[in-house]
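Figure 3 (text version): C-alpha cells given as input.
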C-alpha cells in the first residue's frame, strides 16, 4: 500500500523530497530548496519537483524492496495525474531510470513498479509505449518473460492506440526478439518478433531500407537461419516476400531460401557442393536441411496427384525405394500430408497435402476436383432418392397386404 496515499499532493511531495534527500549527497540543500518552493502550494511546480525526484530515483534501488516500491509508486502515481504534455517526459525519465542496467538492485520490485506505471496510464496514452519498453527490458533481465506473455497478442492494437511511429514499433519488436531469443520455449515467438520488426520496412522507401541496410542485414540473416532450422517450419514464403530480404537477392543465403521453398533436392545438392561454407556461417546443418527439403519435395509431389508409385517418390526424393515408406511416415508425422501406404501395390494414396505454392494450374486442378465432387454428390443424391422411393413403395405394398 502506498505510504503517502492519504496526504495532500504538496505533503506527499515533501515526504518524497525528504526521503530522497536522506540518500543523496548535499541532501540538506536539496530538501531546503524544494521545501521553500513548495510553500506556496502552487500546482505548477509539481512537474518540476517530480522531474527532480525522477532524476535522483536511481539512489533508491539499493534499498529495501518495500521502500523502493512505496516511494517509486508514489512518484509514478503523481506523475500519472499530470496532463499528457507534462507527464510524457517524466514517464520517460522514470522508465529509463527503472530499466537502466547502470544502477542494479531490486529488479523484481522495479518490474512491479513499471507495471503499475503502465496500468495507471490511460489505455490510449502514448506514454504507455515507454512504460511497456521499460517493462520488457526489466522482465528480460529477470528472466520472467512468461509474466507478460499474455500481452503479446494485444500489441498490434495497443501500438495503434498509442499512435506509435514505425521507428518505435521497429524498436519494440527488436527488443522483444532480443529478450526472447535463446529462451527455452520461445523460439517461434522470437522469430515472429523478428519478422514483425523487419515488416516495418515494407512500408518504407527504398532509400530508407538502403540507408539501414548494414544494420538490418544481421537481423535478416538471423531470421533466415531461424526459419530454416525450425524443424516444424516448411514454408518460408512470408520471409521471402519481406522487402529487407528481397534487397539481398544477390546473397548466397537468399539462393538457399529460394531452393528450400522450391523443394528441389538436386539443385540443393548442387548448391551445397559449391556453398557449403554458407551453411556453417548460418549455423545450419546440411543433413538437417536435406531432410526438410526432402519432406518439402514429398509434400509438393503429393499435391499433384492422389496416387504415387514408390518408384516416383524414390526418384523425386533421391532415396532408395525401400526407404519410401519411412519418408511417407515422416511427412504424415510432420502434418504435411494425410495418406496411407498401399504396400501390396507399392504406392502411396494421398487424401490431403499441404502446399506452399498455389499457381494458376492449381486453380484449374481445384476446379476439376470440385466439379468431380459435385457430380459424385449428385449421383449419391440420385441413388438415395431411388432407395427412398423403393422403401416407400414397399411400405405401401405391405400396408395393402395387411388389410
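Below: residues designed for each position.
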Amino acid at each position: 500500500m502506498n505510504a503517502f496515499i492519504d496526504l495532500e499532493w504538496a505533503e506527499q511531495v515533501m515526504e518524497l523530497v525528504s526521503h530522497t534527500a536522506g540518500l543523496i549527497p548535499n541532501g540538506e540543500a536539496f530538501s531546503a530548496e524544494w521545501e521553500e518552493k513548495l510553500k506556496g502550494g502552487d500546482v505548477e511546480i509539481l512537474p518540476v519537483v517530480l522531474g527532480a525526484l525522477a532524476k535522483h530515483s536511481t539512489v533508491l534501488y539499493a534499498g529495501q524492496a518495500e521502500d523502493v516500491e512505496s516511494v517509486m509508486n508514489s512518484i509514478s502515481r503523481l506523475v500519472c495525474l499530470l496532463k499528457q504534455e507534462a507527464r510524457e517526459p517524466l514517464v520517460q525519465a522514470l522508465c529509463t531510470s527503472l530499466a537502466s542496467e547502470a544502477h542494479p538492485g531490486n529488479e523484481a520490485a522495479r518490474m512491479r513498479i513499471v507495471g503499475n506505471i503502465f496500468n495507471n496510464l490511460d489505455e490510449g496514452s502514448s506514454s504507455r509505449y515507454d512504460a511497456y519498453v521499460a517493462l520488457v527490458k526489466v522482465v528480460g533481465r529477470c528472466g520472467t518473460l512468461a509474466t507478460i506473455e499474455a500481452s503479446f497478442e494485444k500489441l498490434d492494437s495497443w501500438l495503434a492506440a498509442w499512435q506509435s511511429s514505425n521507428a518505435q514499433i521497429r524498436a519494440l519488436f527488436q527488443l522483444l526478439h532480443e529478450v526472447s531469443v535463446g529462451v527455452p520455449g520461445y523460439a517461434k515467438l522470437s522469430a515472429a518478433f523478428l519478422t514483425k520488426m523487419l515488416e516495418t520496412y515494407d512500408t518504407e522507401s527504398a532509400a530508407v531500407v538502403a540507408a539501414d541496410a548494414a544494420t538490418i542485414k544481421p537481423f535478416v540473416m538471423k531470421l533466415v537461419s531461424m526459419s530454416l532450422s525450425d524443424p516444424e517450419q516448411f514454408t518460408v514464403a512470408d520471409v521471402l516476400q519481406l522487402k529487407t530480404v528481397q534487397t539481398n537477392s544477390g546473397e548466397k543465403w537468399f539462393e538457399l531460401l529460394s531452393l528450400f521453398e522450391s523443394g528441389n533436392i538436386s539443385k540443393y545438392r548442387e548448391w551445397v557442393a559449391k556453398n557449403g561454407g554458407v551453411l556453417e556461417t548460418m549455423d545450419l546443418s546440411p543433413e538437417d536441411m536435406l531432410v526438410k527439403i526432402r519432406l518439402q519435395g514429398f509434400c509438393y509431389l503429393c499435391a499433384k496427384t492422389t496416387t504415387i508409385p514408390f518408384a516416383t517418390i524414390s526418384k523425386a526424393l533421391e532415396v532408395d525405394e525401400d526407404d519410401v515408406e519411412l519418408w511417407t511416415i515422416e511427412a504424415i508425422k510432420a502434418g504435411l500430408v494425410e495418406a496411407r501406404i498401399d504396400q501390396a501395390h507399392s504406392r502411396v494414396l494421398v487424401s490431403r497435402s499441404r502446399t506452399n505454392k498455389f499457381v494458376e494450374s492449381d486453380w484449374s486442378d481445384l476446379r476439376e476436383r470440385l466439379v468431380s465432387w459435385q457430380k459424385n454428390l449428385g449421383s449419391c443424391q440420385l441413388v438415395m432418392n431411388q432407395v427412398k422411393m423403393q422403401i416407400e413403395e414397399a411400405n405401401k405394398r405391405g400396408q395393402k397386404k395387411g388389410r
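Confidence is low (pLDDT under 50) at residues 1-6.
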